[in-house]
Specification:
about 525 residues; alpha+beta; FAD/NAD(P)-binding domain; Flavocytochrome C3, Chain A, domain 1; Methane Monooxygenase Hydroxylase, Chain G, domain 1; 3 domains; 7-stranded mixed β-sheet; 5-stranded mixed β-sheet; 14 helices; about 30% helix; globular; EC 1.4.3.16
């Protein structure tokens, strides 16, 4: 069993810091929520790298919100529910589509500059959206613009203290209530940060897979520490693989945005044949899981490691204007988006599941909240609709503050010592362990899954459990322990769900089964796995 705490310390002997609101992680969720919280509270932001390092920075497509007169919350709701393949919470989706526009106004007020055309927002369309409702910035650098604006505002805010390059090892709880967190500083010193409210904004777990669009920091920390603290973990079998990540020797798996297909790009196999008509009536704009599996099928049939995305019908001027970041990045590797077919392949991109929350971002553990990709609010269901992730972060960030306003101050309590007396140190280098884990996940719990493969992967992962009996001291130790926790939960959930739905595809159960499986998979560290019901 995964232990309650990763390290042995006596909390009562550590230095203590008291704060009203602690935000763990940056990205749009952390930055936005910290700024909103700072209007009334003293806030501490703890990031394991810096404010500028997060998945948000790499978000190209944009943020989905009902802005146009031709659009409506009802249309946005329908598109989200269809993409979510029957597992969305309708009430959570209602919150998103109705409150998203106000959240966008907040972003603008905080300094985000979205692209305009003729004095109005330049809206684009992405896969599985029925209307143009995606706001973007600098063409295809929306995430970077949001992070720029919010981080500048955060740094200037006198009510926000920022601890860069600090690592949250575990949440400290007593009687089902979160009291704060155990934090390791740059020099290895540990400190107990006591907080009236603790908000996890730690992002996803893209580093579970060898090929991912996520940065190195996406190691599932929030999900793992919340699980150890007693929160519920929901629907982690649903991993979204982005269909079109650059696949070229020497280049990282850089995202070639869905918006490129939204603007008319087509997919071709290595024979030059357009193939999406074989798989879905929406062609290249089908839901991501369908496009990703179609690409894998074509790669297998043609014995290739990639397919091509073809945007050569557009002029060089248009391509440079609309997708400057992608254009420049590809050019660094001798590829011209306006005249070359660009080699792409699927890569792990987004985790639909995460820490289960209510409609105000609160978890099963009192005073503990989750926001952004780390959370499972019910918005995304089995497959996230493109550009709904940034919207979700701001909508639920606003709602978390509503709940925090209702909290009574944390009473003074004695914390039970965290002490298991581990002495042994890990033998195998962590970098080797991590690579082995990533290969297991890619092979057995990737885009296509079977019971035999998942069981084999789960059994191989369990052999790594001895890491929890060793004395962990470094950041990479904690990150691996967190990744292993997420990998075990993901493979177990995927093994249990005997159907195919959204981002979870079982070759041995290729059909969706609403009769048996229109329900959530929910893990609790103390009580194991349970089944959650959809609110209809």
């Amino acid at each position: 069993m995964i232990p309650r705490y990763l390290v042995d310390v006596d909390i009562n002997e550590l230095p203590q810091v008291h704060i009203e609101v602690m935000v763990i992680g940056a990205g749009i969720a952390g930055l936005f929520t910290a700024i909103k919280a700072s209007e009334k509270y003293k806030v501490l932001m703890v990031t394991k790298k810096s404010l500028l390092d997060s998945n948000t920075r790499y978000a190209q497509g944009g943020i989905a919100a009902v802005i146009s007169d031709e659009d409506s919350p009802a249309y946005h709701r329908q598109d989200t529910l269809i993409a979510g393949a029957g597992l969305c919470s309708p009430s959570a989706v209602d919150v998103l589509v109705h409150e998203g526009p106000e959240g966008v106004k907040d972003l603008i007020h905080m300094g985000t500059q979205f692209d305009l055309e003729n004095g109005e927002f330049a809206l684009t369309k992405e896969g599985a959206h029925s209307q143009r409702r995606i706001l973007h910035a600098h063409g295809d650098a929306t995430g970077a613009e949001i992070v720029r604006a919010l981080s500048e505002k955060t740094k200037q805010d006198p009510n926000i203290e920022i601890w860069d390059d600090h690592f949250v090892i575990d949440l400290i709880t007593e009687d089902g209530e979160c009291l704060g967190a155990l934090v390791q500083k740059q020099d290895g010193q540990k400190v107990f940060v006591k907080a009236n409210a603790t908000i996890l904004c730690t992002g996803g777990a893209g580093q579970l897979y060898r090929y991912t669009t996520n940065p190195d920091i996406a190691t599932g920390d929030g999900i793992a520490i919340a699980y150890r603290a007693g929160a519920l973990i929901q629907d982690v079998e649903f991993i979204q693989f982005h269909p079109t990540a650059l696949c070229y020797p020497g280049a990282p798996r850089f995202l070639v945005s869905e918006a490129v297909r939204g603007e008319g790009a087509i997919l071709r196999n290595i024979k030059g044949e357009r193939f999406m008509e074989k798989y879905h009536h929406q062609l290249e704009l089908a839901p991501r899981d369908i496009v990703a599996r179609a690409i894998v099928n074509e790669m297998e049939e043609t014995r290739s490691t990639f397919v091509y995305i073809d945007f050569t019908h557009e002029s060089e001027e248009t391509v440079k204007h609309r997708f400057p970041t992608i254009y420049e990045f590809c050019l660094n590797y001798g590829l011209d988006l306006s005249s070359d077919w660009i080699p792409v392949a699927p890569a792990a991109h987004y985790m639909m599941g995460g820490v289960k929350t209510d409609l105000y971002g609160e978890t099963e553990v009192r005073r503990l909240f989750a926001c952004g990709e780390v959370s499972s609010t019910g918005v995304h269901g089995a497959n996230r609709l493109a550009s709904n992730s940034l919207s979700e972060a701001i909508v639920f960030g606003r709602r978390i503050l509503e709940r925090i306003h209702q909290l009574k101050p944390l009473e003074q309590t004695d914390v039970t010592a965290v002490n298991n007396r581990r002495t042994e140190h890990a033998q195998q280098p962590i970098v080797e362990k991590k690579l082995k884990l990533q290969k297991i996940m890619l092979r057995y719990a990737g885009l296509k899954r079977t019971a035999i493969g998942l069981q084999k992967g789960y059994d191989e992962l369990r052999r790594q459990l001895s890491i929890f009996d060793t004395c962990l001291t470094k950041r990479e130790d904690y990150e691996f322990a967190n990744l292993l926790t997420c990998a075990l939960l993901t493979t177990q959930a995927a093994l249990i769900r005997e159907e195919s739905r959204g981002g979870h595809y079982r070759e041995d159960f290729a059909e969706k089964d609403d009769l048996l499986w229109r329900k959530h998979t929910v893990f609790s560290r103390e009580h194991g796995i349970t089944e959650g019901h959809i609110d209809v």
